[in-house]
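Possible race condition, two jobs.
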Amino acid sequence: MAVILEEKDGILSDVAGVDRDLWHQLIVAITIGGAAVFALLSGIPTEKLGRKITILSASAIFAAGSVVMGLAGNKEILLVGRLIVGAAIGIASTVVPVYISEAAPMHLRGTLTVSYNTLVVAGQFIATLVCGAFANVDQGWRWMLGLAGVPAVLQFVGFMFMPESPRWLLSKGKEDKARDVLKYIRPANYDVDGEIRDIQENIKNDGDVGNFFQVGARVMNHQPTRRALILGCSLMVFQQISGINTIMYYSATVVQMAGIGSASSAIWITAIINGMYLLACLIGILSVERLGRKKLLLGSLAGVILSLLVIAVGFQLADMNSPSVDPADVSWSSCGSQLHSCSLCVQDGNCGYCEGPQKSFCLTINGSYSESGPCSMATQNSSYSWYPDYCPTTSVNSWTIIVGLAAYLISFAAGIAPVPWTMNSEIYPLWSRSFCTSVSTCTNWSFNLIIAMTFLFLTTGLTRYGAFYLYCGLAVLGWVIFLLFLPETQGRTLEQMESLFSGKVIVLNKKKISTF
């Protein structure tokens, strides 16, 4: 999205240099920040009003935000629309996995929760196709953003016919309604009364849990739930700091950094990669109940680590072989003579690379052109090519990065994408589920925001390959932590999770080591 907003008639086409990078990241980050805040707050309506009403509200808010974005007359109004959409995303991403987990039978819980993640990826894939379709349309970015309201409206209408969560109904003493729901969503010969008894026994043991903030205090003093929350938040943290949303939000930019030409070309290549990401989600659906959550997660992270290594090496090779820069006329550019290669030139933020048949220059950026010289709007010399954000490179380097990008998304989609959401929807007891899920989801979006806001600055400070080496190292750390501390939740009912987190902490050892 941000790539298109900077092109031609985009809302950022008149912004240059550091200001362009700042607005580029703000437009992405405002949605994530809104999602983080409202994910944390969403536990209150989720618990008080129910799962269904909260999901309906999120759908309506998202549709309203899409309209604001599509009609935005300036970048400030666009930010408001992005914030509204972020609020809806934060609420929905908290409550929808909980709703699925509470309604699903035990043997299908993992598959159905992973399917939720797959459908999110399907939405991202469709959004990429929409971006590609409107990439060369006048004011096309308005259609890209405004049409996002269509699926929100469809979800609102469809969810009007969905039942409330039976576990939430029982927690509010509505046994008859819960029984009706369970009879509707369970097989004809299913022991509905037995499931109701198990849930009610769990609710009785929980006692009066108090308000949202009292629940938080109780969680901190209850060792099994505290441990579950720490691990749940850790899953969300490492899902983000392994770089996924850098890849997703800036995928077209990363493809351009690899040396692919126009924004529209980059978007279509990104669409193909995202299509592979979508297909790879089937691995998670087919494997989560066969392999279990932990094995799937560790295998996925191993693939992510290797893929990040390939991307980093690809960018490092591209920088080592970056085209050279010739001295420019001082009247053409304020970019310093120390920027002697294309990679150094475009990393400056204010400068772009102007490639010619005999000489190439580092020139000051002015919108979609250079401020002066052969790549300026006034000159538009057809024998010169303008690269404001990336450098031309060999096809070997380009495709090394793109193959690494595709391998990363496939590996990520198989496990580390769905497993944190799946486990966070099932590891908390009913009395703390709304609170803990809102905290873990807020953690996810908060680290999502950190990564989104720092990626372009990391590529400047650490270089492009340095940023991906950093993500690789963090993914290795996550792999070790989950190998040691994450228990397997496969084959347990939601009411049995507390006993699992009351056991040993280092799950590779036979004896319990410690508690936290």
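Job #2 (started ~2 s after job #1):
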Amino acid sequence: MARNRGLLWGCQHAFVLFVLVGCCSARIHRLKLKNERRSIIHLNSFGFYANGTLDVNVKSLTLTGETMDFEQQPIGFSLSKSRVGGMMSYAAEESDACVLTKPTGSEPLVLFLIHFKDSSVQVKRYGDQKNIITGQAKTLDLKDATGNRVKRVDKPKQAAVNASQPKQAANKDGGDKTKADENTPRVEKGGSRDGDLILVLQKTNSSYNFSFQIKIVSQSEEGMYNLNFHRCFSKLWDKENSFSIDIEITERNPGGFLSAAEMPLPLLYISMSGFFFAAALLWVHVLVKHRFNVFKIHWLMAALAFTKSISLIFHSINFHFINTEGHPIEGWAVMYYITHLLKGALLFITLALIGTGWAFVKYILSDKEKKIFMIVIPLQVLANVAYIILESTEEGTSEYDLWKEILFLVDLICCGAILFPVVWSIRHLQEASSTDGKAVMNLAKLKLFRHYYVMIVCYIYFTRIIAILLKVTVPFQWQWFYELLVEVSTLVFFVLTGYKFRPASNNPYLQLPLDEEDVEMDEVVTESGVLEGISNVKKTSNGRERLRD
């Protein structure tokens, strides 16, 4: 057992060292992928307010199958606006078809089609949108009405296109229409339409690079945006279809680098930390006041409340620096990860110990209960490791989805596992109330255990199901209600658990059953009257409890 314990702590310390040397860059994203074969890569989702900006800098894009026909199997980026809560985006609806080949639709969508033959990136816009797209425009060759090539028009280095403007400028003074046509370049490639912005695609050795910026100009354009990378090749997953990409993405809102749904989180976390700290102080006051009825697990519950409060403080500080600097400060991030690990382990250990009745009515765990702890503790460590990896990994990596599924699955297993000790205790009390002579006491404990079971189920239901449904149904700027519901539910659960199992002499859970010999001796002493008025002192494991006759 000690060996396993040492192994777990060794894994935790090794992972902390991993976090120290490899912390992600948060809202200033830097993603490097090599030898990728996925047809679609979700780069990021971000909630933008008005005047928010998205900067994308493709530093390097290397292809191993440049002999393919990229006109029939295009490659590029898409920026789509989600309908509700980051779900059901335009790009996600047609998962079987490549978005780059989809015809014009009513949903807001921006496509960046990469043309390697003429070293250009064609920007195509669909739906009603007013966002401004800027980038280094390409010098284009034009054709006149007869199809003959005319002079080249040198565009400025930075060109901007507003999607709300007409795609072909009209001559307000009724001047020569030919002059207006000369200022509106027509692209020869790809069947593009008039008014499309054409960006420069630069080539260095065997890699390509370009950049662009998008600005949200009005409140009607606010929302959750998804940036994806697409390669619409056939389903022949071989080395010829692989690619490597190095991309930097910077997202900003007027108030900082946080998404719209994350901007209230620093204040939320620091406020909830104060509530948990106040609850922990109140719990310690109760323990000191009733110190003769206090068990070791009561102090474990106090440690859990303080650890939760400290974890929220570091979480708030972490988000504050992300908002101001665009990336977390490694020292604060590591402190949050450590306290998050401790909080998660303490939570499930405490709940399972309360469910087994350890330190209250018994001091030895059964074999079944020991197996539960052997399962829950390593899984909880794995769940926290998965959470930290998700926090420090970019969404576009192939490992991100894997660890996300691991976290969801392991968390559900842990939540289900801690219910088994409570169910076993309820069954044991039901059998004991019908066989021994302490039916009243056992029934009172049975009622308390049933309440505790309902509390755990409600806690799991609110934090794992209701909160997720709330997150995917509310508007993008109110998604922080998800975190509020989780933290408030946790606080209420802590308070109710402490109230149910508070150290008080009249708590049925803490009333240890007396042996039959002790009961008979009390009756003899009472009937004789020899020791009338003298207090009987009963020794407990944590102190001495005075029981006056």
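DSSP finds twelve helices and 17 strands in the chain.
Logs attached separately.
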